[in-house]
Every structure is written in structure tokens, then in C-alpha cells.
Amino acid sequence: MTARKNISFRISIILFYLLSVGTIAFGSLYFFRSDIMPYHYSFLHLTPEELTSFNPNILKLMIAFLKIIGSSFIAIGIGIAIITYRGIKKEKPWAWWSIFVIYFFPIVTTYIITIIVSNNITEGHKPPSWLALSMIIDLFLALILSARILKCHKIGKK
Question: Does residue 13 contact residue 88 with C-beta atoms inside 8 Å?
């Protein structure tokens, strides 16, 4: 491995680990909350009191969904860390594809939903769309920097 490739590959590993930490942090934020996020109330155009007085079960259901989403992102983040350690660092092409498949769809869906929610909030808190976008950028930078070393274009060829 040349020095330049080595540096690019090391940067990609750091980016994969940053992606993992960011994903676990995001998941933890949702999982450990006892209330929905302020931008959820803004989207609904309701205060916490109005939502609870309307139907307290809606809030309980929304909190349950946050916990499901949070635990899923925690699992994805842990999975990315394991795949990076067990596969990417050992230059295994399957690891590159695994991270792409496991992470691409949830984060792109999250980004699209944050844009839709944000566009429907006229006043109040808005979701951090920039965070999802930065995670997408991190993912693609890491994938691009590691693709040649991992020879991802040669999977299935002998």
C-alpha cells in the first residue's frame, strides 16, 4: 500500500468510526428521552399540554416510536463499529458493502423525513436536517476513500 493510499484508508477508518459514534449518539438521544423532541410539537402545532389533554396515548405511542428508532440507530452504530474493526481494517470488501447497505437507507430516509417535517413547520423548533446530511456526507467520504483499497469493484470476480 502506498503512503497516499495508506493515509486515505486511515482517514476512511476514522470517518467510519465517527459515523458509528454519531449514530450511537443520535440513537441514544431518542432512546433515553422521556418526551418527544421540541420539533415534534412544532410539527403538530401543539404544546405538550394540548397534546396530553387531547389524548395522552398519542404521546405514549410517539415516545415508544422514539425508543424503537433510537434503539435501531444504536444497533446500526454498534454494527458499523464492529464491521469497521472486523472487516474494513482487515481490507475485506464485504465490509464496505455491508456498511453501505446497512447505513444508506436509514440515513437517507431520515434526511428526507427531516426535510419534509422542517418544511411543514411554520414556527418553532425545526429538526436538524444538517445532522442527517452531514452523516450522509461522512458515509460517502469514507466509502470513496476506502473503495480502491478494498477493491469493492471486484466483488464476485476471480
Answer: yes
